[in-house]
Design a protein that fits this description.
By secondary structure, the chain is an alpha/beta fold. It folds into two domains: about 50 residues, 2-Layer Sandwich (Signal recognition particle alu RNA binding heterodimer, srp9/1); about 70 residues, 2,3-Dihydroxybiphenyl 1,2-Dioxygenase, domain 1, CATH 3.10.180.10. It is about 15% helix and about 25% strand. It is built from two helices and eight strands, in the order E-H-E-E-E-E-H-E-E-E. It is globular and about 45 Å long. The protein starts with 11 loop residues before the first strand and ends in a 24-residue tail after the last strand.
């Protein structure tokens, strides 16, 4: 479209009190390669694609509460991770330091909390690899979301 600059998302960045520790967790969970590594900044890349995820130092970051509760630290972002076996994927995540969230909104999704408490979803998907998003229905829960 004329007059509109092209923009491309090149990386997702997550904050953590210890970016190296959180990067190790996701590197091992997702089989990614470290491309940049310093105490304040770590970048991982999928060797099979252009996907990158970075971790930056956020020393004052507070552990989020999920599902959200008004007046408490909210989740700022989470990852959707397509897997071919929920049980195996959850077991691997837990082996690496994740915990299963108490609240599980859908039977074909497993919500886990990474080592800094950020939720991430493991899900089964029969849609083609190039589908734009996971096939999730809106979810509501009994917690006080402040809305």
């Amino acid at each position: 479209m004329p007059g509109i600059a092209r923009a491309t998302v090149t990386c997702v960045t997550l904050g953590a009190p210890d970016p190296r520790a959180l990067a190790r967790f996701y590197r091992d969970l997702l089989d990614l390669t470290v491309t940049e590594d310093s105490p304040e900044w770590v970048v991982l890349r999928d060797p099979q694609s252009r996907f990158r995820i970075a971790f930056q130092a956020e020393p004052l970051q507070e552990r989020p509460v999920w599902p959200g509760v008004a007046g408490q630290q909210q989740m700022m972002a989470h990852l959707e991770i397509r897997v071919d076996d929920l049980d195996e994927a959850e077991a691997r995540a837990r082996e690496l330091g994740a915990v299963r969230a108490d609240f599980q909104p859908q039977p074909d999704v497993r919500v886990c909390l990474d080592p800094v408490g950020r939720p991430f979803c493991l899900y089964l998907d029969d849609a083609p690899e190039d589908s734009p998003s996971p096939p999730f229905a809106p979810v509501s829960w009994g917690g006080d979301t402040g809305t």
